C-alpha cells in the first residue's frame, strides 16, 4: 500500500474548449451538461449564470464519494473499479492519493468494484472509508494501513458498505447494498439475506436500523439531524426515503420522500445514489439525469443535468462549491448556498 502525492500529468493544449458545443469556443471554461430550473426557488440556491465546470474529463472508471480536504482547497474521491483514491486541488489539479483503497487482499478480486466508495472525516480528522472489497468500514491510519471499525453484523459479514454520514455525536450511519460483491445479490459469499442501514455508535455497537430497502445507497441527515434520508438505487423502485430519528439514535417508521421510478430511462442515466444536504435543508441528490435538487418538503426545484450517470456529490472549498463525481468525470458547480456543517 502506498500513500503518494505525485501529480498525474495530463495534456494541456494551449486553449480551453467548451464541451458539449458543436462549435468549441476558445477561452471558455469546459462544461458538462447544464442546469435545468424547474422552480424559481432554485435561483436562490444556484446563480442564474452558474455552469457545470468540467475539472477532469474521461479519466476514471467510476468516480464516487467526494469529500473535502479540511485544510486545503481540494477534495479526495474514490475510483471504485481502480481500487484507489484520487485527490484534486486548485493548485495541483489531479493527483493519485491512495492505492489500494477498498480491497487489500492478495488474490485477484473477481468483481468490478473492489475499491472504496463513500468517504467521510470524523472529528479527529481521520478518514473513514466504506470498503467494498474488504466488506467493512475502516479508518485510514497515519502509516497508510487500515483499522477495521466494523465488518460483521451478528457474526455475519457485511455485504459491501456503500455510503456513510457521521452524526454530530460521532455515530456513523451507513448503508450496505451488495454492489461490491462479485456477483452482487447472487454472490455465494453473501452472508446476510437483506440489505441494511446501520448505525455504528461511538462505543462500537452496531445496530440494524432498517432492512426494508432493496438497495440502500446514499445517506444524509437534515440540518437538525431529526430526519435521515436514504436513497434506494433500485430501477424498479427508484426512491428516496426519509426516516424520523429517535432520541436514542434509532429510526422511526419511514416514508417515501420522492419517487422517481418513472424517470428511469436511457434518456436519463443514473439511479438514486449519493446525496448531500445544505444548511437550509435542501437536498442535492444524484439520480436519473444528474444531481436533482429538492426543497426540504420534497419539491423538485431543478436538476444539474450532467448527461451521464452521476454517482455522488460533496461540498468543498468554503462550503458553497458542490463537487460532483459524474461517471468518468469530475465537475463542480459554484452555488449561493452552503453545505450542512459549514
Short description:
0% of the residues lie in helices and 41% in strands.
Q: Keywords for this structure?
A:
342 residues, mainly beta, five-stranded antiparallel sheet, 28 strands
The general outline is globular
Q: What is the CATH third-level topology name of the domain at 2-28 and 61-267? A: Neuraminidase
Give me the count of strands.
28
CATH superfamily of the domain at 2-28 and 61-267: TolB, C-terminal domain
Strand content: 35-45%
Structural class: mainly beta
The end-to-end distance, rounded to whole angstroms, is 33 Å
Radius of gyration: 19 Å
Order of helices and strands: EEEEEEEEEEEEEEEEEEEEEEEEEEEE
**Mean pLDDT over the residues:** 92
Strand order of the largest sheet: 1-7-6-5-4
Fraction of residues in helix: under 10%
CATH class descriptor name of the domain at 2-28 and 61-267? Mainly Beta
Return residue spans where pLDDT drops below 50 for at least 5 consecutive residues. Answer: 1-26
Q: Which second-level CATH architecture of the domain at 2-28 and 61-267 applies?
A: 6 Propeller
Counted by DSSP, the helix tally is 0
Q: Tell me about the biggest sheet?
A: 5 strands, antiparallel
